[in-house]
Structures are given as structure tokens and as C-alpha cells.
Design a protein that fits this description.
The chain is an alpha/beta fold. It contains 10 helices and 11 strands.
Length: 251
């Protein structure tokens, strides 16, 4: 079975793919639907992006977040709570100016506060990936059959699970800048699970950063674990949102 790890990137989505009997490959796609259309019908996909949206955002998140944070030690801040579906769809237009972008962020924050308990706004970091969360949400609403093939995961949870349930010691980034030591720590772990270092050291496809590439690479390993029945969902069994989309972080 083809297994695919996916992460969002500046140019859209980066996918690391392994077909049966083949070595991994990497490519960038402009949108999530195009990525899926390039895959075999039975491919298993693990993506670093929230899947399944709450109507009311509670303290700690949808459920999966509170379960995985204790595993991550100093890395737990990388798992943030997901706002309500209404907040994610509060403003869906493109942005032509930075002022419009900040205005949209304020609007989403107000909707988020009205649909969370306790009331909570939206961070700039979270707002920056709203469009990508909506992409996956729209695809899984329109094509329910994909809900058994496309799974949410999280890089730091994935690295932790692959590291015998020990969180990574070093961050991938420090103040927004790549941390070479943290990247090296993760590459060494990926090599223990079958990757060749030359593949991990290559320049990422155009439009993707080095950390996006590494995150997609670990997502591919999780896709393999899901396909083979080794992966665990948090929670187990998964929850479901109002539409019926599963809610769980797999690793």
C-alpha cells in the first residue's frame, strides 16, 4: 500500500510518499485536493493538520490535545487548541493587504471568543493555518469516503512515539529559526526507522522549508503505522465532530 506523509508549506502542501517496493519521494502540491488526486485510491495519508472541528471549543482543545500534551514535556506547547468551526470560517476571503489580514484575524478572534468556554481568542500562529484546515475540512465533507484514508497526526507526537514514548530533547526551531541540533536529533531517529540520511539531507522541493520536509517525512512513517495497525489514536476510539469526521491524533 502507498503511504504518504503531508505537511503544510508556503507553496501549499509537501508530501513524502512511499510506494510498495520503492524508495520515498517528495513533492509539493498547490492544494490538498490535487495532492489526493495524485495518489492511488487505497493510499493511507497522515497529515500534520487538525481534522474534525468543534462547534464549541473547550479548555484544552477538542480532546486529543489534552491526551498528547503530557507525552511531550518541553515540546507540549507545539500542540494548541483548535477554535470552533464558526471561527475557522468567520473570514474566508483572500487578503490583498496586511491590514485586511489583521482585520480578519480580529474578526475570527471575536467569533472564537463567542464559541469557546472559557472565552478564548485566536493566536496569530493558529490563524495562519486556518485556510489549510478549511481545505482538508472541505475535502472530507465533500468526499466522506476519504475519512478512512486521511488521518490527523502531529510531528512532535510522532517523534515521541517513534522514540519509545520519549519526547525529543531539542526544539526544531528557536525563535522561528531552524535549530540544526534539533533537526539532527530528529533525522537520526528517522534513520533508525528506515530512512536514508542522504534523502533527509537533500534540499526540500521548492516552496517547502526544511522543517516542513522533515515533518512530512515523519508523517509518512505514521501513515505506515496506521496502515499496518501499529498506530494508536488519541483518544481511542476516536471522537467525531457534528458532521461525522473523526477527531483523533494518530501516532
Amino acid at each position: 500500500m502507498t503511504v504518504v506523509g503531508v505537511d503544510g508549506c508556503k507553496a501549499g502542501w509537501i508530501a513524502v510518499r512511499r510506494d510498495p517496493g520503492a524508495v520515498p519521494s517528495a513533492a509539493v502540491f498547490p492544494n490538498f485536493a490535487a495532492l489526493l488526486d495524485a495518489l492511488p485510491a487505497d493510499a493511507t495519508v497522515a497529515v500534520d493538520m487538525p481534522i474534525g472541528l468543534p462547534d464549541l471549543s473547550l479548555r484544552g482543545g477538542r480532546g486529543p490535545e489534552a491526551l498528547v500534551r503530557p507525552l511531550l514535556g518541553n515540546r507540549q506547547s507545539s500542540v494548541f487548541a483548535i477554535p470552533s468551526r464558526a471561527a475557522l470560517y468567520a473570514h474566508t476571503d483572500g487578503f490583498t493587504t496586511i491590514e485586511a489580514w489583521y482585520a480578519a484575524h480580529r474578526q475570527a478572534s471575536e467569533v472564537a471568543k463567542a464559541t469557546s468556554d472559557p472565552p478564548r481568542g485566536v493566536s496569530i500562529q493558529a490563524f495562519g493555518i486556518f485556510a489549510k484546515i478549511r481545505e482538508i475540512d472541505a475535502v472530507l465533507i465533500a468526499r466522506p469516503e476519504l475519512r478512512s484514508r486521511v488521518f490527523e497526526s502531529h510531528p512532535e507526537v510522532a517523534f515521541c512515539r517513534l522514540n519509545c514514548d520519549q519526547a525529543m530533547c531539542l526544539p526544531k526551531k528557536i525563535k522561528g529559526v531552524i535549530n540544526p541540533a534539533g533537526m539532527a536529533e530528529r533525522k537520526a531517529l528517522l534513520c533508525q526507522h528506515g530512512y536514508i540520511r542522504d534523502f533527509l539531507d537533500r534540499t526540500p522541493p521548492r516552496g517547502a522549508a526544511a522543517d516542513d520536509f522533515l515533518d512530512a517525512a515523519v508523517m509518512m512513517l505514521i501513515a505506515g503505522r496506521i496502515a499496518s495497525g501499529e498506530a494508536k489514536p488519541f483518544p481511542d476510539p476516536p471522537l467525531a465532530d457534528r458532521i461525522g469526521i473523526p477527531v483523533a491524533i494518530w501516532a
